[in-house]
Amino acid sequence: MPQSIESLLPPLKPESLRCIYRLQRYRLPKEKRRYPKRRSAAVAVILFVGRLGDLYVLLSTRAGDMRTYAHDTALPGGKYEEGDVDAEGTARREAYEEIGLPMDREKVKKLCELEKFITGNSLIVTPVILLITDHTLTPLLNPSEVHRLFSMPLSAFLHSRPSQIPSFHYRISHRISSIPHWVIDSIPPPPIVGYSIDDGEVGGKEGRFYGYRDIAWNGHGTVRMHRFLTGREGEGVRPVYGLTAAILIQSATIGYDHPPDFPITAPGQKSMMERIILDVRHGEGPLRRAVDAEGLWDDWKVDDDVLKTKGRAKL
Q1: What are the tens digits of pLDDT across the range 264-301?
Q2: Which UniProt keywords are given for this protein, alphabetically ordered (predicted)?
Q3: Which of 3, 127, 167, 206 has CA atoms 20 to 30 A from the CA of 161?
Q4: Are the CB atoms for 39 and 300 separated by under 8 Å?
Q5: Residues 156, 162, 164: CA angle, nearest 5 degrees
Q6: CA dihedral 250, 253, 255, 257 (to 10 degrees)
Q7: Where are the domains of the chain?
Q8: At a CB cut-off of 8 Å and minimum separation 6, what does 7 contact?
């Protein structure tokens, strides 16, 4: 009889165990349309259990000489490559290449995939949620891609103040053994760090831990970009922002079965699927060209019902 996930993990808080099982049971609706491989990517949302039984997510600081998003805080991930069987394959390969996460599906179990996200440069990203069950693993960072590895409580992405996050009140000793402290950090309470709003934005709100920016999105309305401090800004670590923040909000919302205590969307914001469809059908950028080049246009001709649907947008 297969072992339960609970039997493979250190002691968990009840809410952490419930979070894992909700994510494990989460299923996407069946997708009829196909996405062009040349504009597809995946990221790994890698969870593990901390000393106090809370769930943490691994985050990295991108290397300074990366062509895009240098120095940013990110999830391991990247674009589809030949040989990747599916989004899970892309996410696992990228996590192995960036931080040395084993490809072994028993030591690192897949819990679920989330709905696809679209980036500002028209890349379709699938988040794949993974859970480390072997806590003897030691990360091996690829210095050409990753400068630093650290973690935050997954529940942090449901709250606007760190005082609401019990795990932020402790310095944890991680259960992943033999990892040098300079590779994966313990978590101090976030310091008071100001956040300035850039000029030219539609709107925004400053905050010491949580903040957001409402920005114009490729001619298709306004989109809210969330930002969370990591507590390491004084060491040069950038906040969790944009796509990474949106994916972690979605992951935490599903896992803890609880909405965040802040509004997720800007007024009138279109859903993620509406934005993808608009980019394919009415855009002139790389996503539309990739759909044409891979002969997928017929998959995208029957979406008027989606565009006409009214209701609250989702991330």
Answers
A1: 999 999 999 999 999 998 888 999 999 999 999 998 87
A2: Hydrolase, Magnesium, Manganese, Metal-binding
A3: 127
A4: no
A5: 80
A6: -150
A7: 8-28+36-306
A8: none
Exposed/middle/buried for 89, CB within 10 Å: 0-12, 13-18, 19+? middle
Give me the residue label for tokens 């009889």: 1
Q: Would you report the helix, strand and coil content of the chain in percent, each value rounded to 5?
A: 30, 20, 50
Distance of CA 133 to the CA centre of its chain: 20
In whole angstroms, what is the distance from residue 59 CA to residue 257 CA? 22
Q: Which of 293, 214, 197 is nearest to 285 (CA)?
A: 293
Tell me how far apart the alpha carbons of residues 100 and 140 are, in angstroms, rounded to a whole number: 5
The pLDDT tens digits for 240-272 are 999 999 999 999 999 999 999 999 999 999 999
Please give the model's pTM, rounded to 2 decimal places: 0.85
88-89-90-91 Cα dihedral, nearest 10 degrees: 50
